[in-house]
Amino acid sequence: MPATRREMRIMISTGHLGTAPSGAESFLAAIDTMPDYLVADGGSSDPGPVYLGSNSVLGQFVEEELELFLVESRKRGIPLIIGSAGDSGSNHGVDETVRQLRAIAERDRIPRFRIGWFYSEVPGEAVAARIAGGERLPGLGGFPDLTAEEALRASRIVAVAGVEPFMQLLDAGCDVIVGGRCGDVCFTAAPCIRAGFPVALAYHMGKMIECASLVAEPFMGKEAIIGTITDEDIRITPYHPGQRVTVASAAGHSMYERETPYFEHALGGVLDMRACRYEEMDARSTRISGARFIPDDPLTVKLEGARKVGERYMGIVGIRDPHVIRNLDAAIAWCRSAVARQFGTTEHELHVHVFGRNGVLGDLEPYSGPPPHEVCLVIEGLAATDRLAHKLTDFAVRMFFLARIPGSKGSSGLAATTKETMRSSPGFVWNVNHTMRIGDPMELFPVHVGEAGV
Amino acid sequence: MPKLHELAKTIRSKNAGVNQITFDVIFPDAASYARVRDGGALSSKAVAALFRIPPERITDHVTFDLANAIKFTILRAKPSGSPGDWDILGCQAYGPLVDLDVP
Fold first, then answer.
1. How far is the alpha carbon of B87 from chain A, nearest alpha carbon, in Å?
2. Closest Cβ opposite residue A259 in set B18, B60, B78
3. Are strands A80-87 and A176-178 parallel, antiparallel or unpaired?
4. Sign of CA dihedral A72, A74, A79, A85
5. Interhelix angle for A24-31 vs A62-76, to 10°?
6. A257: which residues sit within 8 A by CB, 6+ positions away?
7. Which of B11, B14, B18, B20 would you mutate first to test chain A, the one with the most A CBs within 10 A?
8. Which of A255, A353, A365 sits opposite B67 (nearest CB)?
9. Nearest chain A CA: its distance from B2 CA (Å)
10. Local confidence band at A3 (pLDDT 50, 70, 90 cut-offs)
C-alpha cells in the first residue's frame, strides 16, 4: 500500500469522434484542471459494416474535434490518445487521422511532438490459412464458426487490440497516439495499467467513461467527463454544470450497449463487475470499487470483418389511396414479380421498407392493426454495379406508380414518388464476428512512431 | 393498469455487438422496479410473446437490483447494417415497450 494516496485523471469528451462537436465549455473547464491524459473513442462497430468495408467515415466534425483536442492538449503538455481511428480502426482510418493531426499541427504552428500509431488489420488470407490449418474460430453473437471461404470474402478484417500497443507507444515517449481498432475500454485503461494502478479498476474506468457524458444524468452527449483512478477505487466526475454522475446513472451506464451488466471482454481477459460498489461522494461525482479482472488463458482476439453485397440505391414512394393501402401486400407482390421478370437472371437484392406498418422494426413489430391514412415505402435495391443498382431501384419505384391493383379507381399513377432514386452507401454485411487465439497481445498490431508539428 | 412509461424512468434499446439488441428498462425506485420484475410484464416469456420471437432469440435476461433495472438481449434476424436492416443501432426497438400494460 503506498504511503500517500496517488491518483491518475483521464479526461474524455466524445464517445464517437466527429459525430458532433464536443461541448466547448465543459471541455475547457475539464482540461483546465490539468488531467493526466485526454482520450477519445474514434469509432465502433456500432454504425454497421459499411465504414469498415468501404473505408468511409461517419462523422462530419472529425476535423473540428481533432483540432480542439490537439491544440488544447499540446498547449498544456497533456498526452492525447485516440482509439479505433477513422470509425472502423482500419489502416486507412489510422493513416487519415495521423495525416489530419499532422496538418492541424502545421496549420496551428504546434511545436514539435512525437506521434505514434498502430494498425489492426489482418489479411483475410492469414485468417483463412489458420482455419485451413485446422484452427477453429468460434463465432460471437450467434455467428457459426468462421470458414476459410468466408474469411476470404471479407473486404477487410480488423482485430480488436487491447492495452498493449498503447502502452508500448507511451513507453516510446509519444505525446499523441492514434490507435487502430481496439477495445473501447483500452485507450483509457492503458495509461492506468502502465502506471501500475490495479488492472481491474483501470478497465472498469475505461468502461465507465468510454461514452463520455452518457455516464451522467440528465442525458447529454459530447460533454466532458474526468475519471480518476487510485489504488482503491475510481471516481467519475462530469464537467457540464447541469450534469451529475449518480449511483443510478453509473450503474445504468454499466449496462449500456452490452449483453450483461456484469462482464466486459477485452483482449487479455474479462472484467467482472458483479461485486462492484457504487457510492455518491459529493453533489456530482460517484465512486466505484470492487471490479475484478479474470485473465484469459490462452489469449483470444476478436476479429471484425465486412463483406460487400453490392452497390445500393434508395427510392421513396408515398401512397395515399386507401384502396392501395388496403391492398399494400398486393402492390408489393406486383413490384416484386415485375422486378423478378426484369432482373431475375441478374444477382440483386430488393428490400421494401413500409413505414406506417413495420418500417422501423421489421420482423420485431408487434403492431398488426390497420395502417394509417398514408404510408411511405423506402425501396432499397442492390446489384453488382452502380448502373444496375440504379436501374433496378428506379424500376421498383416505378412499379408502385404502375401497380396493377384490381378494383383501383386511380388511373393516373398509384404512388407519389420523388424526382429521382438516390445513391446510397454500398451494401455490406458483417461476415466476421469471431475470436481467434493469439500467443502475444502485440502480434497483430504493429506500432510506428514519427514526429509532427513545427 | 399503468403503462410501462408511467413507471420507468429509462426505456431504451441499443446494439450489443453486431448481432444482438439489448433492452434496458430502468426504474426510479425499488418499488416500481419490483412491481414490474415480479409482475412478469417483462419476463422472458412476455418479451418473446410481445416481439413474436422464439424464446431462443432471447440470449440474456437479468434483473439488476443495484440499478433498479431489467435488462434483456435478443438476437437480430440479421446482423446490424445488413441490406434491409433499417435500425442499424437498434435504438428504436424499445418502441413497443413504452405503452406496455403493467399488471
1. 6
2. B60
3. parallel
4. positive
5. 20
6. A46, A211, B14, B15, B16, B22
7. B18
8. A255
9. 19
10. low
> Does residue A254 register a pLDDT over 90?
no
> Residues of B with CB below 8 A from A248's CB?
26, 67-68
**pLDDT reading at A2 higher than 70:** no
Calculate mean pLDDT across residues B32-45.
Answer: 96
What is the ipTM score, two decimals?
Answer: 0.94
pLDDT digits (tens, 9 = 90+) for A21-65: 999 999 999 999 999 999 999 988 888 999 999 999 988 999 999
Smallest CA–CA distance, residue B6 to chain A, in Å, is: 18
Query: Does the pTM of the predicted model rise above 0.90?
Result: yes
Check CB contact of A286 with chain B, cutoff 8 Å.
no
* Per-residue H/E/C for chain A: CCCCCCCEEEEECCCCCCCCCCCHHHHHHHHCCCCCEEEEEEECCCCCCHHHHHCCCCCCCHHHHHHHHHHHHHHHCCCEEEEEEEECCCHHHHHHHHHHHHHHHHHCCCCCEEEEEECCECCHHHHHHHHHCCCCCCECCCCCCCCHHHHHHCCEEEECECCHHHHHHHHCCCCEEECCCECCCHHHHHHHHHCCCCHHHHHHHHHHHCCHHHHCECCCCCCCEEEEECCCCEEEEECCCCCECCHHHHHHHCCCCCCCCCEEEECCEEEECCCCEEEECCCCCEEEECCEEEECCCEEEEEEEEEEEEEEEEEEEEECCHHHHHCHHHHHHHHHHHHHHHHCCCCEEEEEEEECCCCCCHHHCCCCCCCCCCEEEEEEEEECCHHHHHHHHHHHHHHHHCCCCCCCCCCCCCCEECCCCEECCCEEEEEEEEEEEECCCCCCCCEEEEEECC
Q: Give the model's pLDDT for residue B6.
A: 97
Instruction: State percent of chain A over pLDDT 90.
Output: 90
